[in-house]
Write a structure and sequence with these properties.
With 308 residues, the protein is mainly alpha-helical. It folds into two domains: 67 residues, no CATH class; 163 residues, Orthogonal Bundle (MetI-like fold). Helix content is 67%, strand content 2%. It is built from 15 helices and two strands. A two-stranded antiparallel sheet has the order 1-2. Helix 13 runs antiparallel to helix 15. The protein is globular and about 85 Å long. The protein starts with 5 loop residues before the first helix and ends with a helix. The C terminus is likely disordered.
Length: 308
């Protein structure tokens, strides 16, 4: 094993220190959000929350603890004592959550089917008018008709329900270019050998190109899923109330004045605690899925973005 010299040791130590500091900076906001959501009104108003949730100690002070609220999520005074309990007990929250999962899953599925088939065709030099199609694809990344024209187009296409919304926003030029360049990285010798053995275009795509481009496909899938999960603007202006996703519901809650939510008379937690609890609940699926997909990111972007 090669022994590291002094400069390499210093570099590694500094790298680990800087990465640790950066990780703490990224993780701390999430820790603070959870702590506020689990604190009661007294704990929040004390302005002393840093890492752990605080609750009233019953003597005018605060102590470390979780404001769960006893039976049925309520305090002895009958107040709702926990922001998470309040969020999870709202039917509209679950309807919005279900809509978001629906858009994220089926929207990503439709986008990947369109993206993979389109990218496969565009990656072939033998495609008739292939250069023109690739130019038009790239052109849409830099120039568009604008929000008003796009909105009118969506209206005319009646994209105001779940299924229309999935297909209407199922195309992204940048992601298709990533997939196209990833497919171009597959050796042509393998395709030629499979063609000689009698493979059809569909078999070439499903048996060779897709398995050999897993990193790129996984990366683009995550891009689509995150875009669908976080989608707000078009969902807020196009969809009917019953079809709106979680992000629109959260924005509606944020815009409500405190006068419409009598925190002091009904709830034993702050308005910020209520909002933070919604944020935590909304990112749980992403926190679970993202680490599983992260290993594909660097390889996928490099395969899709670097051409030999």
């Amino acid at each position: 094993m090669k022994r590291l010299d002094r400069t390499e040791i210093i570099f590694k130590v500094l790298s680990y220190v800087l990465l640790t500091i950066f990780a703490v900076i990224c993780i701390y906001p999430l820790i603070y959000v959870v702590a506020v959501a689990l604190s009661d009104t007294a704990g929040y108003n004390s302005n002393s929350i840093t890492l752990l949730p605080l609750i009233s100690d019953g003597h005018g002070g605060v102590q470390v603890g979780i404001a769960w609220g006893g039976n049925n999520g309520k305090t002895e005074d009958g107040l709702v004592g926990n922001a998470f309990y309040q969020i999870l007990s709202q039917r509209k929250f679950w309807f919005s959550y279900a809509n978001t999962i629906f858009y994220a899953f089926y929207g990503t599925l439709v986008s990947m089917v369109v993206g993979i088939t389109g990218a496969y065709a565009l990656s072939k030099p033998r495609l008739m008018f292939g250069r023109g199609f690739n130019f038009l694809l790239t052109f849409t990344m830099w120039f568009s008709a604008g929000i008003i024209a796009t909105f009118r187009n969506f209206q005319n296409l009646h994209i105001d329900n779940k299924y229309g919304f999935i297909f209407g926003l199922g195309f992204n030029a940048f992601n298709i270019i990533l997939l196209r360049n990833g497919f171009k990285g597959v050796p042509t010798e393998i395709e030629e050998a499979a063609t000689i053995d009698g493979a059809t275009e569909f078999q070439l795509l499903t048996k060779i190109y897709v398995p050999m481009s897993k990193s790129t496909i996984a990366t683009v899938t995550m891009f689509y899923a995150l875009a669908r999960w976080n989608g707000y603007y078009w969902a807020s202006v196009l969809l009917k109330e019953v079809d709106k996703p979680l992000q629109v519901y959260m924005r509606e809650q944020l815009e409500k004045p405190d006068s419409t939510r009598p925190w002091e008379t009904l709830y034993n937690f702050s308005s910020d605690g209520f909002m933070f609890a919604m944020v935590v609940c909304s990112i749980i699926p992403i926190i679970i899925v993202y680490p599983l997909m992260q290993k594909y990111f660097a390889a996928g972007v490099n395969l899709g973005g670097v051409k030999e």
